[in-house]
Amino acid sequence: MHIMMLASECAPIAKVGGLADVVAGLANELARRPGVEVEIVLPKYAGLDYAGLVDCRLIWEHLPVPFFDRTIDSRAFEARVRGLDPALRLLLVEPRSEHRFFDREDLYGYRDDGPRFAWFARAALELIRATGRHPDILHCHDWQTGLVPVLLYEEFEANGLRGSRACFTLHNVHHQGVVGVDVLRQVRLDPGRLMTPDRLLHHAGGGGVNQLQGGIVFSNTVTTVSRTYAEEIRRTELGCGLQRLLERYAHKLEGVLNGVDDAVWNPMTDSYIEKQYDIETIAHKADNKKALRKRLSLADVSKPIVAVISRLDRQKGCQLMKHALYTSLRRGAQFVLLGRAPDPAIDEEFQAIKREFSGNPDCHFELTFDDELAHWIYAAADLILVPSHYEPCGLTQMIGMKYGTVPVVRRTGGLAETVFDANFSDRGFDEVNGYTFADEDGQAVDSALVRAIGLWYQHPEYFRKLQQNGMRYDSTWRARADRYLELYRSILGW
User: Fold this and answer.
1) Which domains, ranges and CATH numbers included, belong to the chain?
2) Of the candidates 10, 18, 20, which has an alpha carbon nearest to the alpha carbon of residue 53?
3) CA nearest 195: which of 183, 208, 206, 204?
4) How confident is the model at residue 16 (pLDDT cuts 50, 70, 90)?
5) Contact 74, 100 (CB under 8 A)
6) How far apart are CA 381 and CA 390, in angstroms?
7) Residue 411: its pLDDT value, please?
8) What is the pLDDT of residue 76?
9) Fewer CB atoms inside 10 A, N or C side of the chain?
């Protein structure tokens, strides 16, 4: 089976959030399977981490990609990604155009993001056709690749890609890639055929093209990243206006949990942390705790550390994070936060809190993204807080559990499927692994966080049991990749 992953991110070379980890982790696991060939297609961003590429070479000097009534002369490169399976190939497409679509500082956040990634969708398929590749599966991720299934069935199936099937994964339906109708003319699709409510016409009116909607309608199978989120987006406001469409296509929608790459997140082999450990030597977390406190100038005292490692925006529950800070300090815990706010107003809120607690021996804020420090915090912290307004899957809680860091989470999306409350879950004693709460207010956060801190102080042997249960939880990609292979075979009729 030949699988092509089309995405806007891939760890570690082009990463904004969890999407990058998912693309790399799933592709890497699939590439290890006998008889499975995997390639990843990305834009060739100027900001790629080129140190993470191996054997990068030009494979196509002149690739004409249609752009309105002309073409953009483009190039394509092939490479491998350092740290991923050597059999896994990366393809990069690069436009040579005055638009400088990907010759920019950041991956996203530009007014022309819609046209940029529409170009990428068309370019990826042009590259596949030009090089004579015949992938069985085009696995597309989020709105940035939403036009790929549309183009496949409107043009490319009849012109070089007969037999290919499309799988489309929704990582976050809040972002739908709504743009003007000219984007269809840009990639030479017919607005007259496609601009209807049951195809690409945006549900909120205004005549816009909804690229995420296009991916849902035209794909052979649609996945999202947990069963709970699949239900939430069909039946609640978390569907962001797509509820009716998703209900219509419920027969091809399935939730498959994401996994964690245990080659990257593994306390037994983690080269970043002070002292490696496993479930039998979990006492070595104390060495990592001591090292983190020294690095962050925290008091070296007998207190639990409550950690937040997160993007700082409304989805992630910023107000609840701030409430948890004060609760943690009042209840005798230390509090560490690592995260970056894309919104200037939220950034200023957290900068003000950082200034307020500057020099406090029990609190430290790092308002940036620092992958190495994230490893340190996971290995040192006792509790990891994930108070999300919504969380399609969530990797933070699963990474925390691998490091014996007990999660305290809001019961939504993938958080509800991976964290089982120590006191109120119907799971057995050997499966409970954290604390959960339902409502979005300070009282709800306290209902879980106070119990967790209290257990650390009053029943350390039971707290250790929660840590070990979390470390036993299987969050690897192996079972998840098996399910994707089943889905692929199903839509191929194998």
Assistant:
1) 2-259+478-492 (3.40.50.2000), 282-474 (3.40.50.2000)
2) 10
3) 208
4) confident
5) no
6) 23
7) 98
8) 98
9) C
